[in-house]
Amino acid sequence: ALVLIQRCPACFGGVAFGRDLSEGGDIHVVTDGNFHHWHRRSAGHSPHFYDTSYFLPKAQVDAICRHILRSRKSPPKPHKSSVPHEAIDQCENSYEAADDKKQRSSMDGLDDTGVMALICRRDIPLLSANVDTPGEQQMHAYGHEWACHRQFPLEEAPQRP
């Protein structure tokens, strides 16, 4: 918890937690990706110049990915969407990040294709991860949330009366 408290004392430095969602909740975080921070394979590895505590290790993100893939192998639950499939398809097609074919062809020479960050409601970066797969994968969002929860487990935080 100390790392998150140091990064944003306003969000994580409280003395008691457990505010109801109808009152705004305690902690608000969001993931955001920037797909213009690339690293070319041919560039090799540069000297160490940044604090790696801000970045989730690749092994941790890959473990989350494997967990998601294992979970998806179970049969999907029956679901009746209230939104027409045509509207969903049109929305998906309007985002470049969702276009895996376009992403794959343009990233052949890259080993990192972007950076995904977890930021608090005050726009302070809490955690980051290099993106090495096409598109905005949910594993990055889950990886960030999981790492944040490990560093700041709310069930162990002092609760409001």
Unreliable spans: none
The gyration radius over C-alpha positions equals 19 Å
The largest sheet is: 3 strands, antiparallel
Percentage of residues assigned to helices: 25-40%
Strand proportion: 15-25%
Kindly report the spatial arrangement of strands forming the biggest sheet.
1-4-5
Rounded mean pLDDT is: 72
Task: Write the H/E string, N to C.
Answer: HHEEHHHEEEH
Overview of the structural elements:
It is a single chain. The chain has 161 residues and is α+β, with helices and mostly antiparallel strands. It has a domain at 25-43 and 52-72 and 94-151. The protein is 34% helix and 16% strand. It has helices at residues 2-7, 9-12, 58-72, 85-93, 100-106, 138-151, and strands at 29-34, 39-40, 110-112, 114-120, 125-131. A hairpin with a 4-residue loop joins strand 4 and strand 5. The protein starts with a helix and ends in a 10-residue tail after the last helix. Residues 70-82 have a biased composition (Basic residues). InterPro entries: KDZ. Residues 70-109 are annotated as: Disordered. Pfam families: KDZ.
